[in-house]
């Protein structure tokens, strides 16, 4: 507590200044408090074990479903909470302070799949599939990447052709998060992008049990995000009913574009969580660790790590939440900032984790202190959901098209 | 069964506190608040009663606008409705005044059990629960760590000094003041948070409750004259070294002072 002379200078803020960018409504504030407790009680304790064993924690996932955390942005009529992009960012930031790998699995399920379906699917598709996905009964994912085509989406080889009213889909997808949930166990439902003509992509809902659809190899020995299951999925002449075409034929690219903003923002939010945790860890350590008889916090070079990380984290956080605040799910419009937010936050995360390892010295290199795991996890954010180079390319293109964005 | 839970909103445990310029209380602007920790345990105990059978949980709080947040949190956790006494005169009351307001609400609500926290993290008075019980004409138990309701009574375990426990049976209606750590407090699910938006919050003044005359600064018998930070003394000395070294130094100091 401080005495009054200094306190007397504290003036109450005007109403408009009180707006909290990170929790703009009472619901966001409550969500933040619940997330903090969920992470502390349920997530933190299991994180390193699932990283080490490279396994997806299905029971924790279902618990998240019980709490409603798998359907944050899904309309209430399909079992979701009907909240906005800020809530989505809060969720991924909070999870990633503890277990970014689990966060990635949730992100693929809730945003690459469920959110995409909710925005682009038919009412019948949403009604049939979303409640099971939101509860966690089904584990879902999204298949875009192929062995021969990642950034170059239009170069994909997976094809779907009409077969009467239905479709026949063939191809191989790879690096699919939630492609499996355990060795030999396929995920339950996927949005699969496939070419349906010259420079024409369409999106299909492919479900476990459809004949010809199977799990290929599980990617073992990933650098990070090891609590998420990454797999290759094989489609051999899979018969997909006409009802499982999402939207219209040829609309795949439009769906993809519409979903990119929330995907990038939630991935950026993972970066915020990683940076936040790295900062907390290094701050505490720098206070306790003594060298030459003084806490290492007192050394300028250590201060530089702490202060630079703090400044970068704060900047990235403000940017990402501000972009989330302006995001509307029904119309594109924040693409450049969603790209830029992820471009920034992913690198901030990696630098933060790196700085934390440096501050902790040898301990930082060891699993016990968490930051080495964060460092490994952070790297994915520079690749998945768009590489840094892809963001740089998009941003420059968007700015060139409309220089007034710069201000 | 109907249960009433009294909640107080207090400065967040991580908030940086300043003494207000007039020294009468802390500077409340621009700091974060949260539900008094003891009260979260009281709320959890009430929600457990609800889980165990049919019970309506009504949460009650006295305080300015910001208190809505505490009530919304409680509704998000599972309480059914809220009563918010929003009245500057009520805020200016002493413990007895506040107990009178809560007693007036209890009279309207006729709860089978009132749950309170044992004390408030900010004021540390522990005064309201027994006062409220007395005014509401109910038996009460403090320091409660668990409770179990039957049709006509409630059996509670109380924590006593020195690690002792006591089991007490109270007839209903009664008041229980809950100790921290009595249970693990739940957090609001997203569904709960969304439902909380639709649950009713009744806003009242002391006058609405018919106790306008008996409360407020004028009626207060206890007045805080001053809060302050105790002056720092430079008498404390930290002994460093291994346990053996510290003990040797300590004995030396005691000898120096001529205590031994
Ligand atoms: C753990 C993990 C999980 C994943 N989860 C999913 C998932 O759930 N679903 C899914 O569909 N995909 C997923 N991916 C795939 C991911 O989205 C791709 O890896 C990513 O888009 C990059 O594609 P690529 O690997 O084919 O690399 P490439 O596109 O081959 O890129 C290789 C390099 O070339 C650069 N490059 C490519 N084109 C250009 C260009 N035009 N200009 C400049 N540089 C260029 C890239 O930036 C990169 O540096 C996941 C990946 C990982 C590692």
Describe how the helices and strands are arranged.
The complex is a heterodimer of chains A (407) and B (260).
Chain A: H1 4-7, H2 26-53, H3 58-66, H4 85-96, H5 100-120, H6 123-135, E1 140-143, E2 159-163, E3 166-177, E4 180-182, E5 185-186, E6 189-197, E7 200-207, E8 213-218, E9 230-240, E10 245-246, H7 252-288, E11 290-291, E12 294-295, H8 300-325, H9 335-360, H10 371-380, H11 388-401
Parallel strand pairs in A: 1-6
Antiparallel strand pairs in A: 2-3, 3-9, 4-5, 6-7, 7-10, 8-9, 11-12
Helix pairs in contact in A: 2-4, 4-7, 5-6, 5-7, 7-8, 7-9, 7-10, 8-9, 9-10, 9-11
Chain B: E1 2-7, E2 9-11, E3 33-35, H1 37-52, E4 56-62, H2 67-77, E5 81-85, H3 88-91, H4 95-109, E6 113-117, H5 128-136, E7 140-149, E8 153-159, E9 165-171, E10 174-178, H6 190-196, E11 201-204, H7 243-257
Parallel strand pairs in B: 1-4, 1-6, 4-5, 5-11, 6-10, 7-10
Antiparallel strand pairs in B: 2-3, 7-8, 8-9
The complex binds flavin-adenine dinucleotide.
Task: Sum up the structure in keywords.
heterodimer; A: alpha+beta; Butyryl-Coa Dehydrogenase, subunit A, domain 1; 3 domains; four-stranded mixed β-sheet; 16% strand; B: 260 residues; alpha/beta; Rossmann fold; two-stranded antiparallel sheet; 7 helices; binds flavin-adenine dinucleotide
Proper CATH architecture of chain B: 3-Layer(aba) Sandwich
- Radius of gyration from the alpha-carbon trace of chain B, in angstroms: 22 Å
The general outline of chain B is globular
| SSE class of chain A | alpha+beta
Provide structural commentary.
The complex is a heterodimer of chains A (407) and B (260). Chain A is of the alpha+beta class. Chain A has 3 domains: 26-139, Butyryl-Coa Dehydrogenase, subunit A, domain 1; 141-246, Butyryl-CoA Dehydrogenase, subunit A, domain 2 (Beta Barrel); 252-406, Butyryl-CoA Dehydrogenase, subunit A, domain 3 (Up-down Bundle), CATH 1.20.140. Helix content of chain A is 49%, strand content 16%. A 4-stranded mixed beta sheet of chain A has the order 1-6-7-10, with helices on one face. A 4-stranded antiparallel beta sheet of chain A has the order 2-3-9-8, covered by helices on one side. Chain A is globular and about 80 Å long. The relative contact order of chain A is 0.11. The mean pLDDT of chain A is 94. Chain B has a single domain, classed as Rossmann fold (3-Layer(aba) Sandwich). Chain B has helices spanning 37-52, 67-77, 88-91, 95-109, 128-136, 190-196, 243-257; strands at residues 2-7, 9-11, 33-35, 56-62, 81-85, 113-117, 140-149, 153-159, 165-171, 174-178, 201-204. In chain B, the strands form 2 sheets. A 9-stranded mixed beta sheet of chain B has the order 9-8-7-10-6-1-4-5-11, with helices on both faces. In chain B, strands 2-3 form a two-stranded antiparallel sheet. The longest helix of chain B is centred in the first third of the chain and has 16 residues, at 37-52. Classes of the chains: A alpha+beta (407), B alpha/beta (260). The structure holds flavin-adenine dinucleotide.
